[in-house]
Amino acid sequence: MIAALGPFAIHALMTSPIDDRSVLRAPTVRAIPIAALLLSFSFCLLQSSPATADPHSKYSFESIAQSSGTTFVSQKNDILITSEFAGGRMNRCDQISDDEFAITIEPERNQINDSAWYAFRIESTAAELSNTHDVTIRLSYVGGTHRYDPKISRDGRTWETAAHLVTRRHPVGKEVEMRIPLDGKPIWVAGQELLDSETLDVWADHLSEQPHVSRSVIGKSVQGRPLHRLDITESKRPDYVFIIARQHPPEVSGAIGMMHFVDAIAGKSELGKQFRDRYSTVVVPMVNPDGVAHGHWRCNANGVDLNRDWSHFSQPETRAVMDQLVKYRTLEDNDRDEQRLCLFIDFHSTFDDVFYTTPRKSNLFPKDFTQDWLGAIQGRFPKYEVNQVADHNVHRATSKAWVAQTLGVTAITYEFGDETNRDTIRSVATGAAEEMMRLLIDLPSKPTQGARVATTNAKPILK
Ligand SMILES: [Zn+2]
């Protein structure tokens, strides 16, 4: 199935042209004896890695590898495999035989969530190999297990699912074997579509051609990449919805859902126009651009899981977003009638589509919004199962828990499944945005200057 991504073209970026001599000097390039690899590369049973640990307890910020990009050239100089592009991840490549290669994938640090991201490009470089022939890739994971079946692209922009290329699987996922058909053209192989900062920029540029969409920069990542903000409104005195995405680099389906969701808000529909007349939607579409650029499994460039940093605020990315959020109404300041925040959504990906919400009895503004919204989505898509987990991570330092507890506002983590059909993501995300707009348009307006806002002034209940 072609994973067409609609109006936002996906660009794979080769960060630099590959020079053969520099390739051969690269320290990780190696062609080692076949017998040694055959001995070492048995599908042996290995211990699975432990789950997430406190990111601050066992490592220093400087201890993670900053770049995983490397390029491999085969012994006969006829096959080139590289991860030197934005989002690429291949830590090592070894040649087993003329057409068999062992690729090792490592996380950016130890003790990490098992979201084993990989992305590399492979091509035959010898003229006589321009006819189709297969190569075998044995993908082996250090500190993680196989999560993402491959997607492939011939241009780095248009992707198709390619689980059929997997020919062998280790019983607990430590290794998989893929058979990849090669011709004279490069082929990208990755855990999900490559959706990097430049792709998001193209999408945001396209959106901001409309007069009701403006762009700004709210800060910089650890490595100096800009953190972009979009403002979508036609109101001079709006209420606010705040959306963030991509704290976790491999979670591409969540980013795709976010783009469709925001497209619906910014689009030409009458509903979108009505919503923008009343609300401003603030979007920070890429909270972790360094992690995405380096093909990280989970963290930013300091090796910190940003969605466990929403109490420490030890990282520039979380601080930058928090600095924006604290401009809105707080529990202690609930009679201020400006900058009223009505909803916070953080887009992610997991194994299935699910809404991680605060507990159902949370005393948050707007009252009962979560249940009303999820009910409306279910009513709109009766054959689609709307899943809610209502007490997820409420005591962890997540964005959702922080917004709910600090601002007293409805906060939801909206997850799309890794393998949810991309057409389904488009229709559900668009429908969810429209149901959100309908409900929020009906929310009573805030009172005029100086009057007290009739919202919660009690502590939110998060238990
Ligand atoms: Zn996530």
UniProtKB/TrEMBL annotation:
This is Zinc carboxypeptidase. The keyword Hydrolase applies. Keywords: Carboxypeptidase, Hydrolase, Protease. One of its GO terms (biological process) is proteolysis. Belongs to the peptidase M14 family. InterPro entries: Cytosolic_carboxypeptidase, Pepdidase_M14_N, Peptidase_M14. It comes from the Bacteria.
